[in-house]
Amino acid sequence: MRGPWRQFTDSVDAALSRLLRYDLSRTDVVKWVYFARQLLAVMLITIVSVVGLSAYLSTRQAAVLLKDSLRREALAIAGAAARAAFVPLTLEDDRALAELVDSYRTVPRLDLLRVEGPDGRPRRVLSRESGGARRLIVRVPILPLADGGSNPGAATARPAGWVEVGMRTDRIDARVRDIALTDLALSAWLAAAAFLVGALMVRHLVERTRDLVGEARLAAEVKRVNAELETFAYSVAHDLRAPLRAVDGFSKAVLDKYRDRLDAEGRDWLDRIRGGSVRMGVLIDDLLILSRVSRGELRREEFDLGRLARAVADGLRRAAPARDAQFTVQEGLRVVGDPGLLRAALENLLGNAWKYTSRHPCARIEFGARREAGRTVYFVRDDGAGFDMAHAGKLFQPFSRLHSRGEFDGTGIGLATVQRIVERHGGRIWAEAAVEKGAAFFFTLGGTP
Amino acid sequence: MNRRSILLVEDNPDDEELILMSLRKNGIANEVEVVRDGQEALDRLLGGRAPSVAEGDGFPTLILLDLKLPKVDGLEVLKRLRGDPRTRLQPVVILTSSDEERDRVGSYASGANSYVCKPVDFAAFAEAVKQLGLYWLILNKPPKA
Lengths: 449, 145
Description:
The complex is a heterodimer. Chain A is α+β, with helices and mostly antiparallel strands.
């Protein structure tokens, strides 16, 4: 029961949170949502109870109406019998009386017809009476008419006899009882179902609230850790760079002031010290970017990724206008995402393409998109140095590089940053390449973050 | 403190020496006074425990202010300077290691005149200091002559 039910309620939760834009990572929101759902469950139970009760009451009403109409029918038959008994016949006319009795034999439900004289002695009795059956009996007087029957309204006071009709009511009762029982059963079913649904909802509610409050607490914890990380990164930014500046600055000062007293080796070593400190500075900067990409809010704006790529490509070209490189950028690619982060991603990918084609006399770098299995795949392709696909697994790991610094400079953090950015957008990144045949990086941007 | 002078608020002696070295090397021989934490800077400028420049011979032409400082941080110093009528218009340049957006935005929001990130590369650092000195001491016209 738990599996499908949980799946169902989870999908309801997800749909509702999307529709109403509520944030299930917040404890107060969670409590409100579940209060509303509890209210809904109570309302459902109430509705079912009201429906059941009204079904029962309407059954009672139906029974009363049926009995009432039966009574009127019996009265009408008895009245008709009484008039018939009096008008064309006299009570002594046995043959006519027998005909009267026969004519009422065909009336359904009528199982007793009794005609009595004024003395109360029965003259004719028709009885289909069976023992123990419930019966409705109506007795009406036979009133002799003063004008011999032409005016049924003018009756004398003394009855000339009595007509009694009996009608079985047990079948009616059974019918009413059946209806009542069906209604009651239905109400009971509905009430039981409502109770079950309500109980399950309440149970789910308790569990889910517990889970979500736990998750919200976890989210708060993650937020706290993130804040700590931010403080850490901030300190790194400030404090790690200052000593590097001293290393580089004073090495430079020694080089400038004591150049004449140093031999070539000494100068080379100082140059290496300086190179090391500057490289470490770049590493710190890249690490800070990587950590900044992972922290912070993800903005969601609609913009043209192609135009962004064009701007990045123009920037690269301006930095080295002498290079024979051709950028092909597909524009009009509307995306929803964080423009700052996606710019950083494109700067890395296009920058890589630019870097790894730098040893070829001419370069072709392409940015575009294509539809693949119902989703849009963006790609950056170059015809540069490429890499061996055997090492592709290491591509997105921080600090891992597929080229030596002698071949191409770099910190190995760029693609890790790109991957982090793509994943934060709910997408995926992968690459295809061959040595000296260029590389292509493909990425998707998920519909939801 | 005479006219066309610099007050450097810097707690790192290495950075202090590098800045002074860069200024000297570029012939910016103006008087540079160094204070080493935020409290000292406030005392020096607005008065308090140490004698302030307000009663002396005037405010420096330029304040170079680090953000991360002992006792009172740079942003707080800046806010206090902007809150005081005597230093409300005083040119203050933030000179810091941080390239974080919140520091940049925070500094400008608190009334910094400029924000310069100290590069690790000394050549770039020396160039930045030189340009700052030239611009703020020579090219720029201060609010009060």
